[in-house]
Write a structure and sequence with these properties.
This protein is an alpha/beta fold and 299 residues long. It has a domain at 3-14 and 101-297: 3-Layer(aba) Sandwich (Rossmann fold). The chain is 22% helix and 32% strand. A hairpin with a 5-residue loop joins strand 14 and strand 15. It is globular and about 55 Å long.
């Protein structure tokens, strides 16, 4: 029976050559993406900034509606088609999107490392990336074996394939699938498929390629139940991340504990966070929380 670890865990993303969290505060954050700096809103940054002034190439100014909206304002020229960045062996294109994101989520870097630790030296591990976005996580997983990448957005899957080509990984065993994640997973259950690991990053609200409506609070439990059917006692992990919802990581862990009760291993939960590059009074950079997670690992 999987053991639920109640004490929360913080998975911290550290700066690397092509990305860093420079400062945060007053509901905003200043980040570097390769040669460019950007300011974006962040409701978790409720403290004061360390730096007196922020210089940036662009800022995303949110709309008045808390559910979204807004636009970029640029102080310096920024390539509209994006610019290349690297994380380890993975190369990808960063770009200022209309949704304030830049084509990847840097707080996922410790998750990509963690998944690699679970798979070890495997080269035949079959993994599933649901809501795969632009494929950085998929390409990180592809060194361990075949990956099935699923996203409802044709544009995101096209960008993921372009990132694979940019990384010189277009020959890796990846299935690129444009589909509704819940429908695809249900079909995989009926096909009696099996995976060694699953990562899923569902949105709060979304629509599938045929107009399917996704509401996290209504549909997450059934999706997790289907994911469980794709794993067995020899599988290695499931990793679930959730952004911008009014539930706790302990609630996510409770869901996994219920669904994974018949498997061995451990269920853990906590926060994803990114560390600021500048030191505070304690000598370490502040941690900016970004998302909550729950994970099952077979230990």
């Amino acid at each position: 029976m999987a053991e639920l670890i109640q004490a929360p865990v913080v998975m911290t993303g550290e700066a690397w050559a092509d990305y860093g969290l420079i400062d945060s505060g007053d509901g905003r954050k200043l980040e570097r993406y390769g040669p460019h700096r950007f300011i974006r809103p962040d409701t978790q940054a409720i403290w004061r900034p360390r730096l007196e002034r922020w210089a940036s190439d662009g800022e995303f100014v949110p709309g008045s509606d808390e559910d979204g909206g807004g636009r970029w304002q640029f102080a310096n020229p920024v390539p509209q088609d994006g610019w290349p960045l690297e994380w380890g062996p993975v190369k990808f294109t960063a770009q200022c999107t209309p949704f304030r994101h830049l084509g990847f989520f840097p707080d996922m870097a410790p998750v990509w490392d963690w998944m690699g630790e679970q798979l070890g030296s495997r080269s035949d591990a079959a993994t599933l990336n649901l809501f795969g976005y632009t494929g950085v996580g998929t390409l990180a997983l592809s060194q361990y074996g075949p990956v099935t990448h699923v996203d409802a957005s044709k544009k995101s899957v096209a960008q993921a394939r372009a990132n694979a080509a940019l990384s010189g990984m277009e020959s890796r065993p990846v299935r690129w699938i444009v589909d509704d994640a819940a429908k695809f997973t249900a079909r995989e259950v009926r096909r009696e498929k099996r995976y060694d690991g699953i990562i899923l990053d569902p949105p709060k609200f979304g629509r599938g390629p045929e107009g399917e409506v996704w509401r996290l609070e209504e549909h997450l439990a059934s999706l997790v139940e289907d994911c469980r059917q794709l794993l067995d006692k020899d599988s290695r992990f499931l990793f679930l991340t959730v952004y911008a919802v009014r539930i706790s990581s302990l609630a996510l862990a409770g869901l996994l504990a219920d669904v994974f009760a018949d498997l061995p291993g451990k269920i853990e939960h906590g926060d994803l966070a990114v560390r600021e590059e500048g030191a505070n009074d304690s000598g370490a950079g502040r941690l900016l929380p970004t998302a909550i997670f729950a994970r099952w690992r077979n230990v």
